[in-house]
Amino acid sequence: MPQKRLQAALEQETEAEWKPQVRAQARERAATSAGLVISTTAYFALGPAGTSDAGRRRDISVAVTPSHAVNG
Length: 72
Description:
Helix content is about 45%, strand content about 25%. The chain is α+β, with helices and mostly antiparallel strands. The longest helix has 29 residues, at about 5-30. Strands 1-2 form a two-stranded antiparallel ribbon.
C-alpha cells in the first residue's frame, strides 16, 4: 500500500489520463453509430410561486447526429 500522498498523486494522474480517453472513445462511438442523446433537467420560471406562471422543472433531451458528435 502506498503512502496517502503517493496514492492521491497516483489517483490524480490516472484520472487525468483516463477521462480524456474515455471521452474520446465515447465521441468515436457516437460518430460511427446513430449519434447520441444529451439530457438535462432545467427549471423555468416566468412568474411568482402560486401562479400559473410559477416555475417548473423540465427534462430536456436533444438528439445529436453523428456528424455533430464528431465535432464535440
